[in-house]
Structures are given as structure tokens and as C-alpha cells.
Amino acid sequence: MTARKQRAKRPALLSRTRPPTIRKNAAALSAKATRNLIRSHHTLLKQRAQALERGDRALVNKLDTEIQANGGLESYQLASKIGQSLDRGGDSSKVLVDWLRPRLAGLENTSSKLRILEVGALSTKNACARIQYFDVTRIDLNSQEPGILKQDFMERPLPLCDQDRFNLISLSLVLNYVPDPVSRGEMLKRSVAFLKKSPPSSSSIPILPSLFLVLPAPCVANSRYLTQQRLQDILSSIGFDLVKNKQSSKLIYQLWEYSGEREPKEFKKEILNPGKTRNNFAIVIKKKGS
């Protein structure tokens, strides 16, 4: 296989799929306006990714103009922040804190810290920030405030030792932003490299390396290509076991523990749940070399 073909098959970086951003004055958004802005941004982003994959530069430029007219990435982030405010249901990390607090009882009296990598962080003041034994590293493609590192998770240097890895990775409303199924699979597989490999001991954090995953409920409950069982099969093949699961009318919250490398499997995009009203959200896992 030529080097050119190998490059063509490499999953796109998140930063390559995100459009240019513009800065607009923040205005109060109603719940309906917030939902419409987020939905419209996702639709335009998917269309842009498809055009980019086809090499249709003219359409990419046209969609970039539409995305900017719609407020760009910053307006999307503003809508997401508003959606996570207390009067709109609160931030998703509160669920994570509620799940972990009983299991980490006693750490407040020690020097041990739960190291968390929060991908797609929007704020340094969420529920995790208020737990003294949490050591949170926050990254996002378009940092909104000091304390959030501007970084593409798919470009973040791989850790060289266990001290540089994390006890937990948070992908809260991040995977659904990734515009294509293959890149979503690559993100899930890449997260394993950033998790600690040493098993917990009496002197360390008493939980297995974990992944906190939050998705819009329709991504799993109303997709042609993804069901809860398929999601579980995908993450199980990577080495994860589901230990906590919660679904609201809008979101699915899950906590997965990593128990070790398993036999890799391939998951293609295939119809599992047919229906005209269903969406096309999918996750594809490719074997190495395929």
C-alpha cells in the first residue's frame, strides 16, 4: 500500500473537522433556541465532514459560511453552557460525582487524588471542580477560559508512563460532536492509552481506570445504526465493562471500567433498528491494518 493511500485512511483529527470560529455577543437563549442552535450546528458540521471527505471544496466553503452565519463554534459552546446551567438541568459531571463519591469515601483525608482528563471542557466550575481530591486536566479545541488547555484530544501526545495517565477520562457530549463513525471509534480506542494500567492498591485510588460517557439519548435510543446492546458490544471489545447507567429524557450517562485488553473486533455501520424517523448516528470500529 502506498504512503498516499495510508494517509487517506488515517482518521481525521477533530481540529480538522471543526469549522472556523467567530466571536459574537452572548445573548440569552431560550431552551428552544438553545436546542435549535445545537441541532443546526451538528447538521451543518456533518454535511461539512461529508463534503470534506468527498473533496468538494466549494461545498465546504459554502457550509463554513453557513456555520459562521449560525454563530460558529463559540455560539455552539455558549448554547452548550446554557444547556448545562442549573436552570436547564445542571451539568453532567454532577452525575459522575454522585456515582464516585461513595466509592471514594475517605480520600478527603489523604493526599491521594483522582486524576481526571476532561475532554471538551466548557467550564472550570463544574461539579468536579468542587471535589478537593479530584485533580482535573481540562482540554478543548476552543478554550473558553483560563484553566482549559486548547488541545485536540486526537493530537494529545500519548503518555510515556503510568504517572502521566489518568484514573478517569470524561467524554461528556464529545463523541456526538465527532462528525464521522470511524473517528468516533478511534476516539474510544485512543482513550484507553490515557488510562492508568496499574491495578488499584490499598495505597491508591480504589477504582479501576474508567470512562465517563455522556451522549444525547437519541444517539442510542433512536438510531438506525446504534443500540444500547451494540454500544455495549463495542466498548466491551475495547476492554470496558458497564458499571453505571442512567437515562433521562435527553441524555444517556454511563460509567465504564477498563479491565484490560481484549480480542479486538470489527464493528461496521449496519442497520440494526430500521425506521424512517430514526437518525444516522453510528460508531465504527476497524481492526488494525484494515
Automatic annotation (TrEMBL):
Family to which the UniProt record says this protein belongs: Belongs to the BMT2 family.
Binding-site positions, S-adenosyl-L-methionine: G120, D140
Localization per Swiss-Prot or TrEMBL: Nucleus, Nucleolus
Domain of life: Eukaryota
Task performed by this protein: S-adenosyl-L-methionine-dependent methyltransferase that specifically methylates the N(1) position of an adenine present in helix 65 in 25S rRNA.
GO molecular function: methyltransferase activity
Protein name according to UniProt: 25S rRNA adenine-N(1) methyltransferase
